[in-house]
């Protein structure tokens, strides 16, 4: 597994696709996903993807509701207590109103595209 993770990290044309790993071995899937998240850029990880992603997410939701537990308990467990979000502002057209709106809502980080 480490060679695969290292290859996905270091080579532009190698992606980490975990489409069926969690079905074959949930424990390996959890460990591998954790290692990939810590090592590989997020845009190179395809976890639980493909054409079946909508059906698969619905099935996880059904199982979570049936067991009366959040889905993260079925996978790896809770990873963090909160997630830092950012406000995306379109360049030139929305900067000043967007900043004012974000500051009112308590945003602490902003993302925009400079051209």
Overall pLDDT, averaged?
77
Main pleated-sheet profile: 2 strands, parallel
Tell me the radius of gyration: 18 Å
Count helical runs: 6
* Uncertain segments: none
Q: Using DSSP, what is the number of strands?
A: 4
First and last CA, distance:
40 Å
Strand proportion = 5-15%
- Spatial strand sequence of the major β-sheet: 1-2
What form results from the Cα inertia axes?
extended
Q: Structurally, how many domains make up the residues?
A: 2
* Structural class by SSE content: mainly alpha
Helix content: 40-55%
Element pattern in H and E: HEHHEHHEHE
Main features:
115 residues; mainly alpha; 2 domains; two-stranded parallel sheet; two-stranded parallel ribbon; 6 helices; 4 strands; extended
